[in-house]
Specification:
With 301 residues, this protein is an alpha/beta fold. Helices cover 41% and strands 18% of the residues. Strands 1, 2, 3, 4, 5, 6, 7, 8 and 9 form a nine-stranded mixed beta sheet that branches. Helix 1 links the parallel strand 1 and strand 2.
């Protein structure tokens, strides 16, 4: 039997050395089937030297013709492909050689259309393994905790479910911030996840273009709160987002930060992000220092 073909979408923006590592991780898979790598350049000139021909591990180079940003670039790659399965890899991450083989096998055993794997988080010379617990990947738990181990670079999904049931990446999210989490929430409602409980992706932590774009983060949180009713069904889920919003306001030096802290604590008195936001707003510690400490532990704020 012919193994399923896989399209791997890599959206990129001016990170050539890391991009080549990401492509190499995809093309070096032990998987016996066809893996097509679709590299989508977003708001940057395409590097045609990356193109590879051949039936087994082709690499295509595209220019994002949809909404500028990560969401549009991902969708551009998805729609340009025709593989049975679709996977993603951020341009600063790298797959381990057995990822595709193990994930295709797991999907064959599972009724759901989507699979994720464990990851190895790398930050400032440190590495931490994160393995998602299948029980933590329900819609309610994801909304409450944002399971970071369910990383977009580990996602593999059946094309028909992606296009027809889960839907494409939301291009309306401000700045494409959190587009992966928005998609994961929708995937959780459509059959759940087949989890490969091994770390199969090296994830470069803390290099996100969003990590200091505080106003974009605030706008995207507001968008998500309006879009997903699940956040309003659980005080801890709502408090988590309120706390992140308060932290972003504090990082901006916005005078609304402390009122946002108070609102968070009224909803979720034990929400730690509220206390971190208060510390930043009162100039007891910098947002950058707290972000660095979180990244060293393989977490975000």
């Amino acid at each position: 039997m012919i193994p399923p073909s896989i399209d791997v979408v890599i959206a990129t923006h001016q990170r050539p050395d890391l991009l080549r590592r990401a492509i190499e991780g995809v093309t070096s898979q032990t998987y016996p089937g066809v893996i097509r790598c679709l590299v989508v350049f977003d708001r940057s000139s395409p590097d045609l030297s990356l193109v590879r021909t051949g039936p087994h591990r082709p690499v295509d180079v595209l220019t994002n013709t949809r909404t500028p940003g990560l969401a549009g670039a991902r969708n551009c790659g998805i729609l340009a492909g025709e593989g049975d399965l679709v996977a993603f890899c951020d341009d600063d991450d790298a797959w381990l050689p057995e990822k595709a083989s193990l994930q295709v096998r797991k999907l064959a055993e599972h009724a759901g259309p989507t699979s994720v794997t464990g990851i190895i988080i790398e930050y400032d010379g440190h590495s931490i393994v994160r393995i998602p617990d299948p029980e933590d990947l329900t819609l309610a738990t994801l909304a409450r905790n944002r399971v970071m181990a369910a990383h977009p670079s580990s996602v593999m999904v059946r094309r028909d479910a992606l296009v027809n049931d889960i839907g494409l990446v939301d291009e309306e999210i401000p700045g494409s911030y959190g587009e992966d989490f928005d998609w994961i929430l929708r995937a959780a409602e459509v059959g759940g996840f087949a989890v490969v409980t091994q770390p199969l992706v090296r994830v470069k932590w803390g290099g996100s273009q969003f990590s200091r774009q505080w106003q974009t983060i605030i706008d995207a949180i507001d968008y998500g709160l309006a879009k997903h009713p699940v956040f309003h069904e659980d005080p801890r889920a709502l408090g988590r987002l309120y706390g992140r919003r308060a932290f972003a306001l504090a990082a901006l030096g916005n005078r609304e930060a402390l009122p946002a802290v108070a609102r968070t604590l009224r909803v979720a008195p034990t929400e730690r992000r509220a206390w971190l936001a208060a510390a930043v707003a009162l100039h007891l510690v910098s947002a950058e220092r707290l972000m660095d400490l979180a990244h060293r532990r393989g977490h975000g704020i």
